[in-house]
């Protein structure tokens, strides 16, 4: 850097003042004519900055959260409960993943593709620098997997503590709550049923009546996550149903890993629960039963037939057979034979005419021969199930079936394709064209062209999109049928029946805010408010410190300048008088 140089040297400081410079008295009188200019402050912006948290704030309860759920209705119910609690505590539940601060990923461990989607979502969240909380059966069953390292996990029985996990994750901590709910050493069904929730469909309430099961199927990974059977007491389930109807729900789904096993751990039974529930179902509302395995429904067939005849219970039952080969069923450890399955189906079809029986089949289980598979094909051809879930076998890590000799992938694909062809070879609803049916309208079709309703047998009926139909019983004439649906034209002179329930909650509105939860919420919000105020005070204090430092620095500069001017003035006076 070039050095500065001066051509003229000063003998003393008074040489700076020349004859042409203003005299001190002149400068004094000229100050009277100086008008200071006031710098205006943007008061609104200033106040907004003072009252708002800093942009990099980690105060919990103000972030946006995106929730993604895979899997069964039980998992969907858990997702609704977690969304409700988070929203009640002030978090905003968003449907825009890119706009969210945190992703809550609620996983399913039944099949490989579902876990692959889950893993890919974690990777995407990490690429977008999102905070992540994991839930559902995958992390519960295998929390030590490499791709889960360092991430927060909320266990399937700990969903009532989701707010704690989210708060700590937002602060940058990794939290894992994977324990079981117990009372005096006895395992409970899970989190309380009266927690707040946001229903995906405000007209449908999903109630988990128990968690876990009594089986030990060799292919099942869900058992590792949900554990053994643990049932909720009947009174708690009835109270939850009552609350749902008071919030405008017109359809209840009972769900669990095996509804047929309900109550065996608490000295009760599924029929005992159902008889209590039907007492509180309003006219025009409906109850749908979830999946039940054959072994535990066999002893209740008479009672179940009576219940399925009830006008407020759908004549529908989901009974997975998985295979029509006793050899394969034995390898699966399903604890029943094909004859047991047929006995259940035949009895219910006889006692409940028109009943819909849905079932599941696994293609390509280890050891399945062509003959085993053909027995399954014959079962489908015989019963022509209107609802059939066909699954290609996927070996799940840690299960006994994963260690068995596998059927070649190409064979599994071919069998899956062949069974699908058989299923699509018949139309289960053609004979219903021309019938007049009562249907309950609960949702909109995927293509947004129709409303979706269900008749007495939980068969899907598409009706015109008339807003007055939603949540109502409508009488329709069936004029068209497809593989999975019928189309109905509302009867012109028929009245639309409104169930004797309250007005439904708005979509996204939080339900189940009990007084106890409101008190907990108030305490939490006060804590958050104090934390927020403390952060704002800290922020204001920091700004004040900076301001004082700046003023001190400016004052020091002004003092130095003042002393220099005073020295100049003194030197000038001495020079004049000399």
Sheet-strand content, in percent, reads 15-25%
Uncertain runs: 1-21, 45-50, 531-557
User: What is the spatial order of strands in the main beta sheet?
Assistant: 2-1-3-4-5-6
Shape: globular
Number of strands: 21
Q: Would you tell me the structural class of the helices and strands?
A: alpha/beta
| Average pLDDT rating | 85
Helical coverage, percent range: 25-40%
Largest sheet: 6 strands, parallel
Quickly count the helices: 16
Rg is: 36 Å
Structural account:
- With 578 residues, the chain is of the alpha/beta class.
- Strands 2-1-3-4-5-6 form a 6-stranded parallel sheet, with helices on both faces. It has a 5-stranded mixed beta barrel with strand order 17-18-19-21-20. Strands 9-12-13 form a 3-stranded parallel sheet, sandwiched between helices.
- Mean pLDDT is 85; it is low at 1-21, 45-50 and 531-557.
- It has helices spanning 24-30, 43-51, 73-88, 112-127, 137-141, 162-170, 222-226, 234-246, 270-278, 294-297, 301-308, 326-332, 338-351, 370-383, 409-423, 515-577; strands at residues 64-69, 92-93, 102-107, 131-136, 152-154, 176-177, 182-183, 186-187, 204-208, 210-211, 230-231, 251-255, 286-288, 316-318, 356-363, 387-392, 436-444, 451-454, 460-463, 473-481, 486-490.
- The chain is globular and about 120 Å long.
- It is built from 16 helices and 21 strands.
Please write out the topology.
Elements: H1 24-30, H2 43-51, E1 64-69, H3 73-88, E2 92-93, E3 102-107, H4 112-127, E4 131-136, H5 137-141, E5 152-154, H6 162-170, E6 176-177, E7 182-183, E8 186-187, E9 204-208, E10 210-211, H7 222-226, E11 230-231, H8 234-246, E12 251-255, H9 270-278, E13 286-288, H10 294-297, H11 301-308, E14 316-318, H12 326-332, H13 338-351, E15 356-363, H14 370-383, E16 387-392, H15 409-423, E17 436-444, E18 451-454, E19 460-463, E20 473-481, E21 486-490, H16 515-577
Parallel strand pairs: 1-2, 1-3, 3-4, 4-5, 5-6, 9-12, 12-13, 14-15, 15-16, 19-21
Antiparallel strand pairs: 7-8, 10-11, 17-18, 17-20, 18-19, 20-21
Helix pairs in contact: 8-9, 11-13, 14-15
Family: Belongs to the methylthiotransferase family. CDKAL1 subfamily.
GO molecular function, one term: metal ion binding
InterPro entries: Elp3/MiaA/NifB-like_rSAM, Methylthiotransferase, Methylthiotransferase_CS, Methylthiotransferase_N, Methylthiotransferase_N_sf, MiaB-like_arc_euk, rSAM, rSAM_horseshoe
């Amino acid at each position: 850097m070039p050095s500065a140089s001066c051509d003229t040297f000063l003998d003393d400081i008074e040489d700076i003042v020349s004859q042409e410079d203003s005299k001190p008295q002149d400068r004094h009188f000229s100050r009277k004519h100086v008008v200071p200019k006031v710098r205006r402050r943007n008061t609104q912006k200033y106040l907004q900055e003072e009252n708002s948290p800093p942009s990099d704030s980690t105060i919990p309860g103000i972030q946006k959260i995106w929730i993604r759920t895979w899997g069964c209705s039980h998992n969907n119910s858990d997702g609704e409960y977690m969304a409700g609690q988070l929203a009640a505590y002030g978090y905003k539940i968003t449907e825009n993943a890119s706009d969210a601060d945190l992703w809550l990923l609620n996983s399913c461990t039944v099949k490989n593709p579902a876990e692959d989607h889950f893993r890919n979502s974690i990777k995407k969240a990490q690429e977008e620098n999102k905070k992540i909380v994991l839930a559902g059966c995958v992390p519960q069953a295998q929390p030590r997997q490499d791709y889960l390292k360092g991430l927060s996990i909320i266990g399937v029985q700990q969903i009532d503590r989701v707010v704690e996990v989210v708060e700590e994750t937002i602060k940058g901590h990794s939290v894992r709550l994977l324990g079981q709910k117990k009372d005096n050493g006895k395992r409970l069904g899970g989190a309380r049923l009266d927690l707040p929730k946001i229903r995906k469909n405000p007209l449908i309430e999903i109630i988990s009546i128990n968690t876990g099961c009594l089986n030990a199927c060799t292919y099942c990974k869900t058992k590792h996550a949900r554990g053994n059977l643990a049932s909720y007491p009947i009174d708690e389930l009835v109270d939850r149903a009552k609350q749902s109807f008071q919030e405008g729900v017109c359809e209840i789904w009972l769900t669990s890993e095996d509804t047929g096993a309900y109550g065996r751990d608490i000295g009760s039974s599924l029929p005992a629960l159902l008889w209590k529930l039907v007492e509180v179902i309003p006219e025009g509302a409906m109850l749908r039963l979830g999946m039940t395995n054959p072994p535990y429904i066999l002893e209740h067939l008479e009672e179940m037939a009576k219940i399925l005849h009830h006008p407020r219970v759908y004549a529908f039952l989901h009974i997975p057979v998985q295979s029509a080969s006793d050899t394969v069923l034995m390898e699966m450890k399903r604890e029943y034979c094909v004859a047991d399955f047929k006995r259940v189906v035949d009895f219910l079809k006889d006692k409940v005419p028109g009943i819909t029986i849905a079932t599941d089949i696994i293609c390509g289980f280890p050891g399945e021969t062509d003959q085993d598979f053909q027995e399954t094909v014959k079962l489908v051809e015989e019963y022509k199930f209107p609802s059939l879930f066909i699954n290609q076998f996927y070996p799940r890590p840690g299960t006994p079936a994963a260690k068995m000799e596998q059927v070649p992938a190409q064979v599994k694909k071919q069998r899956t394709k062949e069974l699908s062809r058989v299923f699509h070879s018949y139309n289960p609803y053609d004979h219903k064209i021309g019938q007049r049916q009562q249907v309950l309208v609960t949702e909109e079709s995927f293509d947004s062209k129709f409303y979706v309703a269900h008749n007495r047998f939980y068969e899907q009926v598409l009706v015109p999109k008339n807003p007055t139909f939603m949540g109502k019983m409508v009488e329709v004439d069936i004029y068209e049928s497809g593989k999975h649906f019928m189309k109905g034209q509302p009867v012109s002179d028929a009245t639309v029946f409104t169930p004797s329930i309250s007005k439904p909650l708005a979509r996204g509105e939080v339900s189940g805010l009990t007084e106890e939860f409101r008190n907990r919420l108030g305490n939490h919000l006060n804590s958050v408010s104090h934390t927020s105020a403390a952060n704002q005070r800290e922020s204001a204090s920091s700004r004040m410190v900076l301001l004082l430092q700046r003023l001190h620095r400016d004052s020091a500069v002004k003092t130095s300048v003042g002393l220099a001017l005073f020295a100049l003035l003194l030197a000038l006076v001495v020079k004049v008088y000399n």
